[in-house]
């Protein structure tokens, strides 16, 4: 993960998502100050802003820090604060993180995952040849624990994610694309290559 800068709410978000959602909750008699009743489902009006969310965050998954094409499917609106427990945030733009469907499913309702809006880039280190991800060894004990929990909860260090990060770096080293493209495609790999002084210098 790298830090994600929160983006402004779209102009029509209030009309298309927030007001419709709050009206729906009121109609259903659901108290926004209490968790949802067990098993309760609510109308997914947040899906109506998926296009705006995708473009606002340049198609970058907030947890994997890689770009994905929306046309292949798998992009989701992830509620950082679980809507089942914080229903008052179910229809709030600033609670949404652009996430791949796999990351969304792994995050689920767990609350031990660090918020991409609040972390510092550099807390997650990557061995670029292997793709292994691990906490910055210089973090305090508590922060190291939180980074490890996030890596474990989201499966950021599983075999497929390691292979993906290593492949992105390898393809850059093979000069299959320039560093500017690496930055758009795989921002965490780019940030780590930059931190480690492994990007080609201009000229």
Keywords:
two-stranded antiparallel ribbon; globular; about 200 residues; about 35% helix
Task: Give an overview in words.
This protein has 203 residues and is mainly alpha-helical. Helix content is 36%, strand content 8%. The chain has seven helices and four strands; from the N terminus they run ααββαββαααα. The protein has helices at residues 13-27, 50-56, 101-107, 141-154, 159-173, 179-185, 187-195; strands spanning 75-79, 96-100, 124-126, 133-135. The strands form two sheets. The chain has a two-stranded antiparallel sheet. The chain has a two-stranded antiparallel ribbon with strand order 3-4. A hairpin with a 6-residue loop joins strand 3 (124-126) and strand 4. Helix 6 (179-185) crosses helix 7 (187-195). The radius of gyration is 18 Å and the shape is globular. The two termini are 30 Å apart.
Task: Give the gist of this structure.
It contains seven helices and four strands. It has about 200 residues and is mainly alpha-helical. The longest helix has 15 residues, at about 15-25.
Characterize the biggest β-sheet.
2 strands, antiparallel
Give me the number of helical elements.
7
* Number of separate strands: 4
- Alpha-beta content class: mainly alpha
Ends: how far apart?
Answer: 30 Å
Strand order of the largest sheet: 1-2
Residue share in helices? 25-40%
Overall shape: it is: globular
User: Mind telling me the C-alpha Rg?
Assistant: 18 Å
Strand content: 5-15%
Q: Tell me which oligomeric state these chains represent.
A: single chain
The secondary-structure element order is HHEEHEEHHHH
Average the pLDDT over all residues and give the rounded result.
96
Q: Give the low-confidence spans.
A: none
